[in-house]
Write a sequence for this structure.
DNA sequence: TGTACATCAGTGAACGCGCGTTCACTGATGTAC
DNA sequence: TGTACATCAGTGAACGCGCGTTCACTGATGTAC
């Protein structure tokens, strides 16, 4: 493989440095997949041989898929538990966002796996994201379903931004709570204030 | 290592399945670090032997650090280039957010490396995030510097949420542009509308 | 009641892979005398 | 002007590691006769 490149002449060795950095940046043009815990690490944590995993899962992908499904189920259960069904839509929305943020804070790695990764291909149309969107949309006052979807997406963006940044930049000067940050962002969206 | 665990009796084999999933979820309690491109992959892309990297970098970490620094410099340059310095603060803020979102869209892997990863330890206090925060804060009308920081953080959350979700959930029903989503979220923040 | 057998829930060794890192080397280019 | 030598910009083979996956096996537990 070396030989593709002609060797630098005497003073130009420094150029490889810049080329290496540039090559790395080129490699970063496509999104980088977040790695899930390794099959061996999971087996180790269970006190079991790696090959034992294959008794229950056809491959690492199948195991990951099961993990994601389970995580999504737990998140959904948490959101259900936090939902004051008798309250007003605005209050329910607020409770939903709070539960979402709490879950993200308590399960950072899991949050990343669900929301900082492309959905597995066979989840198309019913991944964690789209389900959450519907849940949000149902609580919005707009009558136009299209506007509702758009607003729900924006709320999701806001709350995801709060959750994600707090996970990755813990040393930022966070003054308020995650929930109040989310509230401040969501409060301004058209049609939401009118309903409160 | 196996032996820690007693073998299941006859009908209970299915329980390992649940234990494996639970163990994986336990492992996901701590945040998962996004991997940077491997040293060997970078060397390969340059047509150079892996060991040649060590002529310019003491370790993989040093290379990664240089990559992150360079990426951050490029982002900053893009933001500078997009800044209409003669315009009003509100217009400059809008331009800044637009440039940020464009950069994220055009360099998804790089965006992840900068903003979906903890800052390298020796960057504490001047990482991409905090720099960006100052930049935002300077464009805000609030006089109280503390309120300005808080608002800047919220804006960052909003715009990060839009950038990040678009990268990871491309199949969501994105109707508007990233920029208009960010605008809608930011527009409602206290003190911003008054300035426009 | 005893025994042969099937099944279940795994084990353990091995494979090939890519990884970061080391180390001795090589061959062209410049410099000293 | 020629030649010995130092330096520069790398190469190439090797190391030990963790990984996903395979395969032949093992030993306890239940079932059939």
């Amino acid at each position: 493989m070396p030989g593709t490149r002609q060797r630098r002449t005497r003073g130009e060795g420094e150029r490889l440095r810049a080329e290496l950095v540039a090559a790395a940046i080129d490699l970063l043009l496509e999104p980088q997949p977040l790695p899930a815990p390794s099959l061996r690490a999971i087996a180790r944590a269970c006190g079991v041989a790696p090959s034992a995993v294959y008794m229950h899962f056809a491959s690492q992908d199948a195991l990951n898929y099961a993990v994601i499904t389970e995580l999504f189920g737990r998140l959904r259960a948490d959101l259900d538990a936090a939902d004051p069904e008798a309250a007003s839509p605005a209050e329910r929305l607020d409770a939903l966002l709070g539960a979402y943020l709490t879950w993200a804070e308590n399960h950072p790695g899991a949050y990343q796996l669900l929301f900082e990764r492309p959905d597995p291909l066979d989840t198309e149309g019913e991944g964690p994201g789209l389900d959450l969107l519907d849940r949000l949309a149902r609580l919005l006052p707009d009558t136009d379903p299209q506007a509702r979807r758009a607003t729900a997406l924006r709320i999701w963006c806001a709350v995801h931004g709060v959750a994600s940044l707090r996970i990755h930049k813990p040393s930022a000067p966070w003054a308020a709570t995650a929930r109040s940050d989310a509230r401040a962002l969501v409060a301004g969206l058209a049609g939401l204030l009118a309903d409160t």
User: Anything to note?
Assistant: Helices of chain B lie at 14-27, 39-46, 60-82, 89-106, 108-115, 128-137, 145-168, 178-187. Residues 51-190 of chain B form a domain with the Tetracycline Repressor; domain 2 fold (CATH 1.10.357.10).
